[in-house]
TrEMBL record:
Domain TFIIF beta subunit HTH residues, every copy: 187-251
Family from the record: Belongs to the TFIIF beta subunit family.
PANTHER family from the UniProt entry: GENERAL TRANSCRIPTION FACTOR IIF SUBUNIT 2 (PTHR10445:SF0)
GO CC field: transcription factor TFIIF complex
GO molecular function: DNA binding
Annotated TFIIF beta subunit N-terminal domain residues: 21-100
Pfam annotation, one family: TFIIF_beta_N
An individual GO BP term: transcription elongation by RNA polymerase II
This protein's name: General transcription factor IIF subunit 2
């Protein structure tokens, strides 16, 4: 029997105090997400500006802070500062935002359990889009140039690199060639001696393939086939396809001698 490790189910309490709070689900470009990941937690990353016009959908704009724009590596392309956010309502879906707090101390007498919170219900989706200005065009052209660059490039080596030095011939190829040469150098036995070995083999079995006959006779394949063509037939059809058998004139299989019935002495005496 095999034992399986079953992870015990742990019930956790879910804090639903913020269930009525509406939150936004915002999709931002990758370059903004990378900047926000680099930003420390104590700086302002941007500002939202919401303009409401009666009878129209609210217009939302995002303006990145100078502190975020300055977070770039040497040679990195600048990113746009101003963006618009296209707003769409959430319909036929129930989406929420959840968080959890993992206890930091495990030395307490009563270990503190992991806490789960519902931070709010998603009421709107927003997609952040940059304005088509000069900074955006430069950023886009640079990303297209990097994407079009081949991942593998030919480099000219100015010295011998041992790790990638080409091999003139691989080990398995050398072993194969040596094995083929050894087979070609096998000494050919006398034809009569080979025939005797073949006839002795065919007395045991009627059909053989070429590999088995080579193991029995220990002769080169080409030489063995020359002898087999003289005294054997090669089957091309089932049920003995690709097998050799002796020609009818060379077949001398041992025949079973019929046993004559013995006379019953008792019956003869009674007669």
């Amino acid at each position: 029997m095999t034992s399986t490790n079953v992870v015990p189910h742990i019930d956790r309490e879910l804090d639903l105090s913020n269930t009525g709070r509406g939150v936004w689900l915002v999709k931002v470009p990758k370059y903004i997400a990378n900047k926000w990941e680099k930003a420390p937690g104590n700086i302002e990353v941007g500002k939202l500006k919401i303009s409401r016009v009666p009878g129209q959908r609210a217009q939302v704009q995002l303006s990145l802070s100078e502190a975020v724009l300055c977070l770039k590596d040497p040679g990195e392309q600048s990113i746009p500062k101003e963006h618009r956010l296209d707003v769409s309502n959430v319909t036929r879906q129930s989406l929420g935002v959840f968080s959890h707090v993992v206890p930091t101390s495990t030395d307490a007498v009563v270990p503190e359990s992991e806490k789960l919170y519902m931070e709010g219900r998603i009421v709107q989706k927003l997609e952040c889009r940059p304005y088509a200005d000069t900074t955006y065009y430069k950023l886009k052209s640079e990303s297209i140039r990097k994407a079009s660059m081949p991942q593998r490039q030919v480099q000219q080596l100015d010295r011998i690199v041992q790790n990638f030095k080409p091999v003139s011939d691989h080990k398995h190829n050398i072993e194969y060639q040596e094995r083929k040469k050894a087979e070609g150098k096998k000494a050919r036995d006398d034809k009569d001696a080979v025939l005797n070995m073949l006839f002795a083999a065919f007395e045991k079995h009627q059909y053989y393939n070429i590999k088995d006959l080579q193991k029995i006779t220990k002769q080169p394949i080409v030489y063995l086939k020359e002898i087999l063509k003289e005294v054997c037939n090669y089957n091309l059809k089932n049920p003995h396809k690709n097998m050799w058998e002796l020609k009818p004139e060379y077949r001398h299989y041992k025949q079973e001698v019929p046993v004559e019935p013995k006379e019953d002495k008792h019956s003869s005496d009674s007669d």
